[in-house]
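> forwarded from #structure-qc
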């Protein structure tokens, strides 16, 4: 089942993001088989990162929650809010 993981950074937490970025990317690489797509959310001017959006493939929400909780960004306290919702791909078709 697909899940959308939407994470919003705490205000002023760019230093936390920068300090944990390498570990976060290693974590994603280790779970690449579960990631449909992933990337940072950007500030309105496109200059800074303010969160993360991932589309994940897990058996159930509990697995998606465990993945999210084990992310180095989450462990470092980067996120103000984390939402995990079931998601269905509609476009592009195929």
């Amino acid at each position: 089942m697909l899940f959308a993981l939407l994470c919003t950074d705490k205000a002023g937490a760019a230093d936390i993001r920068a300090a944990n970025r390498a570990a976060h990317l290693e974590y994603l690489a280790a779970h690449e088989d579960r990631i449909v797509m992933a990337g940072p959310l950007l500030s309105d001017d496109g200059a800074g990162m303010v969160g993360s959006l991932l589309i994940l493939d897990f058996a159930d929400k509990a697995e998606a929650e465990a993945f999210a909780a084990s992310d180095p960004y989450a462990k470092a306290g980067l996120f103000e809010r984390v939402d995990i919702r079931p998601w269905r791909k509609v476009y592009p078709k195929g």
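QC bot note: Residues 14-30 form the longest helix (17 residues). Residues 2-86 form a domain with the Alpha-Beta Plaits fold (CATH 3.30.70.1060).
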